[in-house]
């Protein structure tokens, strides 16, 4: 530490507290009062809370990548303002050189924690199990990042990576939650051979203050699923390997974080996913069957919430890129009861609006097996999929039914039984006039490349009116969305690149009056 002119300079670090007016941040949207459900409304908090996780095809770890530790890591820090201890003391050379300091809460040792290595709070029983170890590491990182708040403390935004590769001969993924043995070949799933379900390399540049005045906060996670990839010269220019990168940047004290995402597939890894998630702070979150940590200090419930964010799609990721303008995940049983961790009766429910204009409607008037049984208009009118004059076929990419539904309407297609630890149900929408009421895109191409937009989506209203399967005569499930995210899934298409930024993200929950 340099002490310029011999005058004792003892920098005092004062925690920079964000300007918050009160815990309940009210706004009027058409006369209603809303409160933010996320810990960092609008991504404005300088002291970032961010984590990354990687999943295999069935949302587990399976096997850690060599020397990478368990695929959970975080970048969480507080910003301190350095001031001289003496009142009116202006010659603190340290202070003028470094007016702000970042104090990171998660160390490299924390981020490198891997199976077998104990850590505070880690239970002995899970130390040798890669799947359970990752789940507990997430809790530990959450403990280090946690921000006290009302009505609940919260931990971090979550970057999620997933590879769709599956080695059916390795028998690593259960089928609809039931353990099964090796089988194959199954060309539904890409796999180049033994080890194809590996976790990615995860490199990390901790957030630092950059720029001529040291006022730009910037950091990065990046890597590849190709374990022999040389990313020493960055990854952007390396051809023919899988690659992902999330860079985050913000000007101190002003504006929003901007999260810049890149995802590239390769012939070995043609099915990859990269999402930016706002997950529940405890309990399960969409697709994750362990207790999670996240951003949602309030769990949004249909129909009373909206989601606001700015999305700039720079590269689309090719025709197979199911770019999700909005992706939400929840879990409830077919009898409407909340999930309890029993993977044979819990059902993950997903709904997504696919923004990519190249994605066709597979739901068709003459072939309705990929259509939901009915569509509900905002005024409550229901139209059956056999009503060719009124059913909005082009509004649906596909609907697939949960594999454990006992009273499904025929014809139907069951969702992939492997890609979740439990059965799943998926509703995928396309831009269409029927969604305009909720603020969603009504025409293909809206919000796509060259058309960055700030969206305010009535996600609550839309998700309230979507069809989801339940056993006949059971009380309707409470639709509580434990993961609200956006990003892309490049589906079985090698050598494709998607690139986009997300900023100003917020979830607004309507206050009950
Ligand atoms: C980012 O991190 C990588 C891997 O740890 C390192 O090789 C690289 O030099 C870092 N880049 C910067 C700009 O600090
Ligand atoms: C990448 O792979 C394609 C197809 O296999 C090949 O034509 C191309 O030359 C490769 N490029 C590099 C830089 O290796
Ligand atoms: C509800 O909305 C649909 C679609 O706009 C329309 O066809 C139908 O007539 C409306 N029903 C009522 C009862 O207003």
TrEMBL record:
Q: Does the keyword Ribosomal protein apply?
A: no
Family matches, as InterPro entries: DUF7705
> Which keywords fit this entry according to its UniProt record?
Membrane, Transmembrane, Transmembrane helix
Residue stretches spanning the membrane: 12-31
Output the superkingdom of the source species: Eukaryota
Q: Which Pfam families match?
A: DUF7705
Instruction: List residues of the DUF7705 domain.
Output: 35-509
Query: Where does this protein have coiled-coil stretches?
Result: none
Please indicate if the UniProt record lists Ribonucleoprotein as a keyword: no
Name of the protein described by the UniProt record: OLC1v1022020C2
């Amino acid at each position: 530490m340099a002490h310029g002119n011999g005058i004792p300079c003892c920098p005092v670090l004062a925690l920079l507290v964000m300007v918050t007016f009160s815990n309940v941040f009210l706004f009027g949207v058409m006369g209603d009062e809303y409160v933010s459900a996320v810990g960092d409304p609008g991504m404005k908090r300088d002291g970032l809370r961010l984590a990354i996780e990687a999943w295999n095809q069935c949302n587990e770890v399976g096997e850690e990548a060599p020397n990478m530790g368990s695929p959970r890591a975080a970048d969480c820090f507080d910003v301190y303002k350095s001031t001289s201890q003496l009142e009116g003391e202006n010659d603190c050379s340290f202070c003028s050189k470094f007016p702000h300091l970042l104090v990171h809460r998660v160390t490299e040792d924390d981020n490198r924690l891997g199976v077998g290595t104990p850590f505070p709070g880690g239970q002995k029983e899970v130390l040798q199990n890669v799947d359970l170890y990752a789940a507990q590491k997430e809790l530990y990182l959450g403990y280090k990042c946690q921000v006290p708040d009302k009505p609940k403390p919260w931990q971090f935004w979550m970057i999620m990576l997933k590879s769709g590769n599956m080695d059916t001969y390795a028998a690593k993924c259960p089928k609809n939650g039931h353990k099964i043995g090796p089988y194959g070949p199954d060309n539904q799933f890409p796999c180049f051979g033994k080890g194809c379900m590996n976790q990615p390399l995860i490199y990390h540049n901790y957030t630092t203050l950059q720029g001529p005045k040291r006022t730009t906060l910037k950091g990065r996670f990046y890597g590849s699923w190709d374990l022999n990839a040389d990313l020493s010269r960055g990854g952007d220019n390396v051809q023919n390997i899988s690659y992902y990168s999330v860079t985050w940047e913000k000007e101190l004290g002003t504006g929003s974080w901007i999260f810049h995402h890149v995802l590239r597939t390769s012939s070995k890894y043609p099915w990859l996913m990269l999402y930016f998630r706002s997950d529940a702070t405890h309990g399960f979150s969409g697709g994750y069957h362990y207790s999670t940590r996240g951003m949602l200090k309030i769990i949004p419930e249909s129909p009373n919430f909206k989601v606001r964010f700015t999305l700039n799609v720079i590269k689309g990721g090719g025709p197979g890129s199911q770019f999700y303008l909005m992706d939400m995940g929840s879990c409830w049983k077919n009898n409407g009861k909340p999930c309890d961790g029993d993977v044979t009766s819990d059902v993950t429910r997903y709904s997504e609006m696919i923004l990519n204009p190249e994605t066709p409607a597979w739901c068709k008037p003459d072939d309705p097996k990929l259509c939901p049984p009915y569509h509900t208009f905002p005024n409550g009118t229901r139209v059956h999929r056999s009503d060719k004059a009124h059913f909005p076929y082009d509004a649906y990419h596909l609907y697939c039914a949960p594999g454990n539904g006992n009273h499904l309407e025929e014809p139907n297609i069951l969702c992939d039984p492997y890609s979740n630890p439990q059965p799943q149900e998926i509703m995928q929408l396309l831009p269409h006039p029927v969604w305009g009421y909720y603020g969603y895109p009504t025409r293909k191409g809206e919000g796509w490349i060259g058309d960055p937009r700030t969206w305010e989506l009535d996600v609550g209203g839309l998700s309230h009116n979507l069809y989801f399967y339940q056993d006949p005569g059971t009380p309707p499930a409470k639709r509580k969305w434990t993961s609200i995210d956006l990003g892309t899934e490049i589906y079985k298409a090698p050598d494709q690149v998607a690139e986009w930024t997300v900023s100003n993200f917020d979830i607004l929950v309507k206050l009950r009056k």
